[in-house]
Amino acid sequence: xxxxxxSLPLALVALTVTAVATIAQAxxxxxxxxxxxxxxxxxxxxIAELAAMYDSSSCVECHQEAHDQWAxxxxxxxxxxxxxxxxxxxxxxxxxxxxxxxxxxxxxxDVKVEHLMGCAKCHLPQLADATxxxxxxxxxxxxxxxxxxxxxxxxxxAKEEKKLLSLGITCLVCHNRNAIVHKWTDGxxxxxxxxxxxxxxxxxxxxxxxxxxxVMHESILCxxxxxxxxxxxxxxxxxxxxxxxxxxxxxxxxxGRETCQDCHMRKSGLGHKILSYSDPAMIKAAVDxxxxxxxxxxxxxxxxxxxxxxRIAMTNxxxxxxxxx
Amino acid sequence: MPVPQQFxxxxxxxxxxxxxxxxxxxxxxxxxxRVEERFDIPYPMEEVDGTRRPTTYDMDVxxxxxxxxxxxxxxxxxxxxxxxxxVSVSRGGK
Lengths: 325, 94
Fold this sequence. Notes:
The complex is a heterodimer of chains A (325) and B (94).
Chain A: H1 3-25, H2 37-41, H3 47-53, H4 64-71, H5 85-97, H6 113-123, H7 132-151, H8 154-165, H9 171-177, H10 183-186, E1 193-196, E2 200-201, E3 209-212, H11 219-223, H12 243-251, H13 260-267, H14 280-286, E4 287-300, E5 303-316
Parallel strand pairs in A: 1-3
Antiparallel strand pairs in A: 2-3, 4-5
Helix pairs in contact in A: 5-6, 5-7, 6-7, 7-8
Chain B: E1 2-6, E2 20-26, E3 34-42, E4 45-48, E5 51-54, E6 58-67, E7 78-88
Antiparallel strand pairs in B: 1-2, 4-5, 6-7
């Protein structure tokens, strides 16, 4: 009669210990995750390490044209983007994180990876492969850059710009890290592999293999960054890019059939330059524009007035609302 | 543009992208839909000998379609389309 009262607590203790052990040993789900660039190299601890993790400078040896196109695109300078991005990173910290009572951020030093992912999901997706020290370094560098700009300190500004410009949406971000969206279906992107439209050997010591990305020519590749709307998985959801959401619900759902790459790369002839509102070919293709004007007299009883009547018709021929991005 | 709703609540537009979590409205051009605008521009009128008439009979009309990436003409505006015409009204008649 006394044995059950003794064995029950023991069983509970044993169960508890087992659960703790299971949690401690839990690995992220998915087979092949340990073969990714980030898993092989380990999380970056500095901006320099993060830049090195996805360094694509060796690609230029064989892919000069694609490199030159990319170098002229905002993808080559995502922290600065189309001109205001670095300043907006700063205000996101200053007016957002530092002002919100529960963020835990008192200054740029306190910034962690998760604080920046609302910005970095598009502007630096590989920040997810870095430690919080990199997020802090990035925030401090942006603040230092902005201070230098305001103070007219050119040397300090150039130093910080060089550091911030070392971070890009490089070849490896699209052709490796983000080349596979459905990782449980298609496998995790593996270190040493360049993903594109072909499979086979690749003449590069660091990347000796080519493999087919199932989404390289699909809009979802771009949609990973040019997003749907607020990222509700974040503790403080936000996202400025809503282009893919507009593409899905206002364009594809209404019968549109072209992809992001069709317009922004192939038809425009932009290739890896991938521009939008500032490029003449994109501007020409974006909108049908008709205008007409005539003069007339309007009569309101005995009162006559002359007016010009101007009629304008516009049809957006892009795959998303204009403006959007 | 998709006008961002501040923190996904209420009627205020978010200040920066870090506050964007909803859309109040989208005043952009929707894809593949014709959008028409009409503007009536009055001529300046004057009264001469008891008759109202335009101070000028010709008006230069300019229509410009601008893309404003940051919402103002002060910051990197891009001129996308331009239309110019001189509109005239008749000089006679009652």
